[in-house]
């Protein structure tokens, strides 16, 4: 009835226009259309030109207003829906991203765990590789590995690398050494080897004098034993240093003469001419860095040339051994080489680099990070 009343009201007002039944708000029922098409309201003439039950005439400005109101209401609803949709989409995206982040976190912790396992496994592989060498010393006596090689060459087609017993000339002592019989024609007595970082090189003087570590793996043969070998009558030795970087680049430094003074001179180093690809870090770039002729120092024996102290950049150094985490070497105002260097205790557990120092071996001005090194000596002249 309300609609009918509105329509009747509309018919009495202002300019007129034709409204067809597709304007739904005005055509709620057939009876409505019937009501004003066939039964004209009292006092009003039917509008001219409007015929049949499906059309009606209402003022245009009212129609426009009603349509506009309806449009506003629809627009408002649409806007609300869009806002709600936007909010729910944002929440959905946030949820998905959070879920993916959680998945990534889980994956990254798994990768870390795997890396640790791989590291442990490769250490074990390295250790078992080392143990593959003859751990039981070969009972083949000679004065050093070069002498053993010369003695066995005529009777054994291929001399294996491994642990041999040597008895240097003019000494009462015999001891075990590792002989490299394959590398560069063999006959090398290994005096130091670093491979896996499992042996602690943070040691006092007595250990550096007597030797430590595992001959088949990482070890320091000992200054007394090396002195006995290189101090033999009418024998001269060369030194070969083989380096491997963290990214598996290899390099070497060799000296055509190598000897040590006795213990009373703190096993001072004596080097011949340098050849190689790693640079002469023993001598460095100037006399201040030169370790040739330097006596050996350890954490408890200080012969490092810093007396009472050295200035290095903005630092004052009293003990090169302390500066190099209490390792032993032929320090001279520290210098550019320390093949016995090891990482600080705090760094060790985190798989820190070995800190083996051979500073003249560089790429693009930056020293290589050395992961493995072997120092070995071989006879270059015999008393024959
Ligand atoms: Ca000092």
From TrEMBL:
Coiled-coil region list: 97-131
GO cellular component labels: fibrinogen complex
GO biological process: blood coagulation, common pathway; fibrinolysis; platelet aggregation; positive regulation of heterotypic cell-cell adhesion
UniProt signal peptide: 1-20
Keyword annotations from UniProtKB, A to Z: Coiled coil, Disulfide bond, Glycoprotein, Secreted, Signal
MF terms (GO), sorted A to Z: extracellular matrix structural constituent; protein-macromolecule adaptor activity
SMART domains given in the database record: FBG (SM00186)
Fibrinogen C-terminal domain mapped to chain residues: 136-381
Transmembrane segments: none
Pfam families from the UniProt entry: Fibrinogen_C
PANTHER family assigned: FIBRINOGEN ALPHA CHAIN, FIBRINOGEN C-TERMINAL DOMAIN-CONTAINING PROTEIN
Name assigned to this protein: Angiopoietin-related protein 5
Gene name of the record: angptl5
């Amino acid at each position: 009835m309300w609609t009918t009343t509105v329509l009747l009201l509309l018919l009495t007002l202002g300019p007129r226009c034709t409204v067809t039944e597709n304007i739904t708000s005005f055509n709620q029922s057939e009876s409505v259309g019937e009501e004003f098409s066939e039964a004209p309201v009292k006092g009003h003439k039917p509008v001219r030109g409007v015929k049949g039950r499906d059309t009606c005439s209402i003022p245009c400005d009212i129609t426009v207003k009603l349509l506009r109101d309806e449009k506003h209401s629809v627009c408002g609803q649409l806007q609300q829906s869009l806002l709600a949709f936007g909010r729910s989409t944002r929440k959905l995206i946030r949820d998905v991203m959070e879920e993916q982040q959680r998945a990534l976190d889980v994956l990254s912790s798994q990768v870390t765990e795997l890396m640790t396992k791989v590291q442990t496994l490769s250490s074990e592989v390295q250790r078992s590789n080392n143990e593959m060498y003859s751990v039981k010393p070969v009972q083949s006596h000679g004065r050093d590995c070069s002498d053993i090689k010369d003695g066995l060459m005529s009777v054994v087609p291929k001399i294996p690398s491994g642990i041999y017993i040597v008895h240097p000339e003019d000494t009462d002592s015999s001891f075990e050494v590792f002989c490299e019989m394959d590398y560069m024609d063999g006959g090398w007595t290994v005096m130091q080897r670093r491979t896996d970082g499992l042996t602690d090189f943070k040691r006092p003087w007595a250990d550096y004098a007597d030797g430590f570590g595992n001959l088949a793996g990482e070890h320091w043969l000992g200054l007394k034993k090396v002195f006995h070998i290189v101090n033999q009558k009418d024998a001269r030795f060369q030194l070969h240093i083989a380096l491997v970087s963290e990214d598996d680049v290899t390099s070497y430094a060799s000296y055509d003469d190598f000897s040590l003074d006795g213990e009373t001179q703190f096993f001072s180093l004596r080097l011949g001419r340098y050849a190689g690809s790693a640079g002469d870090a023993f001598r460095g770039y100037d006399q201040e860095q030169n370790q040739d002729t330097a006596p050996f120092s350890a954490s408890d024996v200080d012969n490092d040339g810093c007396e009472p102290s050295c200035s290095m950049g903005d630092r004052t150094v009293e003990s090169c051994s302390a500066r190099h985490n209490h390792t032993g070497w032929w320090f001279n105002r520290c210098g550019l080489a320390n093949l016995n260097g090891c990482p600080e205790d705090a760094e060790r557990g985190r798989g820190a680099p070995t800190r083996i120092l051979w500073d003249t071996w560089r790429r693009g001005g930056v020293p290589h990070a050395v992961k493995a090194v072997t120092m070995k000596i071989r006879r270059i002249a015999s008393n024959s």
